[in-house]
């Protein structure tokens, strides 16, 4: 019992130390971009590409569904129904993305 109480006190102490370190304010210069020792001339834009993110997310989801479908589908009747449900889901999702224009790389988000 004493070990448990000491362990909980230690965990609580470490949690307080970590949270206090996490919420300490950082200096402006440590969080700003460095441009040869000078202040940046313009605000740096985000290099995050939303179309690339959407395409990669769709690839990840469809890749997982293909892995699910890659096992032999005729093991049992339940798995056979599940197999065709996944195929239908992939087909409907692809048609929805195609008709809504998500697959068009040129369109802006």
From TrEMBL:
GO terms under cellular component: mitochondrial membrane; NADH dehydrogenase complex
Q: What keywords sit in the KW lines?
A: Electron transport, Membrane, Mitochondrion, NAD, Respiratory chain, Translocase, Transmembrane, Transmembrane helix, Transport, Ubiquinone
Membrane topology of this protein: Multi-pass membrane protein
Chief localization class? membrane
Enzymatic reactions: a ubiquinone + NADH + 5 H(+)(in) = a ubiquinol + NAD(+) + 4 H(+)(out)
Which ranges does the record mark as transmembrane?
6-24, 52-75, 81-106
InterPro entries given in the database record: NADH_UbQ/plastoQ_OxRdtase_su3, NDAH_ubi_oxred_su3_sf
**UniProt-recorded Gene Ontology molecular function terms:** NADH dehydrogenase (ubiquinone) activity
Top EC class for this record: translocase
Where, subcellularly, is it found? Membrane; Mitochondrion membrane
Q: What EC number(s) would the UniProt record show? A: 7.1.1.2
Q: What does this protein do?
A: Core subunit of the mitochondrial membrane respiratory chain NADH dehydrogenase (Complex I) which catalyzes electron transfer from NADH through the respiratory chain, using ubiquinone as an electron acceptor. Essential for the catalytic activity of complex I.
Q: Which family does it belong to?
A: Belongs to the complex I subunit 3 family.
**What protein name is recorded for this chain?**
NADH-ubiquinone oxidoreductase chain 3
The organism encoding this protein is: Dermatophagoides pteronyssinus (European house dust mite)
